[in-house]
Design goal:
- It is a single chain.
- The chain has 16 helices and no strands.
- Helix content is about 85%, strand content about 0%.
- It has about 425 residues and is mostly helical.
- The protein has helices spanning about 1-10, 10-65, 70-75, 80-115, 120-145, 150-175, 180-190, 190-200, 215-235, 235-245, 250-280, 285-310, 315-320, 330-340, 345-355, 360-415.
- It is globular.
């Protein structure tokens, strides 16, 4: 396996993976530092509320994103006229959808807060809906750069926002009293810096391009099922049920270790983007299989690395979040096992989306997983609170592995090509 790893590192995929993971690790270290300081500053109760607000923002972003960034990777990877037309369409769509989500958010923030039994977070939710606009533009610039395999520049766009967030948090803590409102403003508004950096790397000289109706149809049609999958997957069922049934303290005890897992999940997403251009380019099952087999050692090593952090769960949680979060230790153990297993889905999901192009099937399998996740949360949270939410997450990951891996095995056994 070591020989395979050395060989892979010398390929374009290996170099791109190294760039992406280096950038991701820097970005995760900066983002992780923020989510180490935030729970300590706010305590479990207020951090639980902050987690609900940010989870709602992430849900809004995934609904608004409409998988346009995935479509960019699929349709704009070549330097041709089609690429410019796709970028023009995606940029304008991001702006329109972002503003629309913000306006809808202004209206639904109050009733949503009341449904969750936390009316005091109404204005915080409105801040998160406003931040959607800038996050979407950041997603556009990152996807545009990644579609051209400019992974280092894409990493810089991400890193710039997290760097500014940490610097402003430190300055704010020194000069002011940092509270829930300050952290929420800071979390979303620093994304403006990423937008500015992204604009510097990606000149908007394609905005005058007109996208033909057939290309619009193909682009949006491809995106639709991925968007639906991402949207339903991003609904924070666990945190909504926790804050409603068990209260904000249990929500905070679950959300703190979940932020570590979210960082790992970002690595998963970044690795999938490295695989995307390769699987898109293949025209036979044999080529896709060979590349997938070459990638397995990398996935295995990363998954084992994630899993081994279970050995330091107790000192890690104490060090990162403090004595207030001791109940989070077992939550983290369950979540990290889930995340290590979940990393194995990067290859089959990439094959289904980028090689077979069966985005509707991804949605259907995701919907099954979400349904199981919902039922598990409803059954486990009332009795086990934060631990119940962690076990529900584990169950949903196992279901996802079975569905995605099984699909690819069956598909390869039946076909000689993409269809």
């Amino acid at each position: 396996m070591l020989r395979q790893l050395r060989g892979l590192l010398l390929t374009d995929t290996g170099r791109d993976t190294a760039i992406v993971f280096t950038g991701s690790l820097i970005n995760l270290a900066l983002g992780g530092l923020f989510f180490i300081l935030a729970p300590r500053i706010l305590g479990p109760e207020n951090f639980g509320l902050f987690a609900v607000v940010t989870a709602t923002g992430i849900m809004a972003i995934n609904f608004a994103n409409f998988a346009l960034d995935t479509g960019i990777l699929k349709f704009a990877s070549a330097n041709n006229d089609q690429s410019k037309k796709i970028l023009s369409l995606a940029f304008k769509a991001y702006l329109i959808i972002g503003v629309a989500v913000f306006l809808i958010g202004l209206i639904i923030a109050s009733p949503l807060a009341k449904i969750l039994g936390q009316p005091q977070i109404t204005n915080l939710l409105r801040i998160s809906f406003f931040g959607v606009i800038f996050v979407l533009l950041t997603n556009f610039f990152i996807a545009a750069l990644q579609s051209k395999k400019q992974f280092a520049k894409a990493s810089i766009v991400n890193i710039s926002g997290n760097t500014a967030r940490i610097l402003l948090l430190v300055l704010g803590a020194y000069f002011f009293t940092v509270n829930l409102y300050f952290l929420t403003f800071l979390y979303y508004l620093v994304v403006i810096i990423s937008v500015v950096i992204g604009k510097f790397f990606v000149p908007l000289n394609f905005l005058s391009e007109k996208t033909p109706a057939n290309l619009v149809k193909n682009f949006l049609g491809y995106n639709f099922w991925i968007a639906a999958s991402m949207a339903i997957s991003s609904i924070p069922i666990d945190e909504y049920l926790l804050v409603k049934i068990s209260g904000p303290i249990q929500t905070g005890l679950f959300a703190a270790p979940m932020k570590i897992i979210s960082a790992i999940d970002q690595l998963t997403g970044d690795f999938t983007r490295v695989l995307a251009p390769r699987f898109t380019s293949f025209d036979s099952n044999e080529k896709a299989k060979i590349f997938a087999k070459k990638t397995i050692p990398v996935v295995l090593v990363i998954s084992i690395g994630i899993f081994l952090t279970i050995l330091i769960a107790s000192p890690l949680i104490k060090f990162l979040f403090g004595a207030q979060y001791l109940e989070s230790i077992n939550v983290y153990r369950i979540l990290v096992i889930s995340s290590a297993l979940g990393f194995f889905t990067t290859i089959p999901v990439s094959i289904i989306i980028y090689y077979f192009g069966k985005t509707k099937d991804v949605f259907l399998m995701s919907a099954i997983g979400i349904f199981v996740w919902l039922i598990a949360n409803l059954l486990l949270i009332p009795k086990y609170a934060a631990l119940g939410a962690a076990w529900a997450y584990f169950i949903s990951v196992v279901v996802g592995i079975v569905l995605f891996v099984g699909y690819v095995i069956v598909k390869f056994s039946k076909n000689n090509g993409k269809n």
